[in-house]
Amino acid sequence: MRALTVLLATLPLLLLPACVSGGQKTEKPRTTAATPTDTGATPSWAKGMKTVREDRLPPEARRTLDLIAKGGPFPYPKDGTVFGNHENRLPRQPRGYYHEYTVPTPGSRDRGARRIIAGEHSERYYTSDHYETFEAVVHR
């Protein structure tokens, strides 16, 4: 009987925080999946991946990123085509989510091995070895 009395006496104290907040949970504001936070933290879409800061990419890759941001014009006919992610090295997404763009390789007579892969939500990935490995491109 005493235990029941103690429980009933403390019950209002346990419910008080829910009443004060209106029964709503408070959450931290979420950053968008495609944008790194101002603190330099890794964006959620890049978690678990090797990252590279945009300013550390080769100059040709930075120019390709600028062209992507402007919507072209692109120097190669295959630029902007769907990247199938057949190697499954990027997060799985529906077909058409990723598009590939050539990063010119000085001295190469063809497109070379370097690419930027762009996701639908502004994610950017760099590969220097024709899709063997990827680095998530972050802004800080």
UniProtKB/TrEMBL annotation:
Keywords, alphabetical: Hydrolase, Nuclease, Signal
Single GO term (MF): RNA endonuclease activity
Record's signal peptide: 1-22
Entries under SUPFAM superfamilies matching the protein: Microbial ribonucleases
Gene3D superfamilies: Microbial ribonucleases
Alphabetized Pfam families for the sequence: Ribonuclease
Presence of keyword Signal: yes
Region Disordered, annotated ranges: 22-45, 69-103
Bias-annotated ranges (Low complexity): 31-43
Protein name listed in UniProt: Uncharacterized protein
Species per Swiss-Prot/TrEMBL record: Streptomyces cinnamoneus (Streptoverticillium cinnamoneum)
Upper taxonomic lineage: Bacteria, Bacillati, Actinomycetota, Actinomycetes, Kitasatosporales
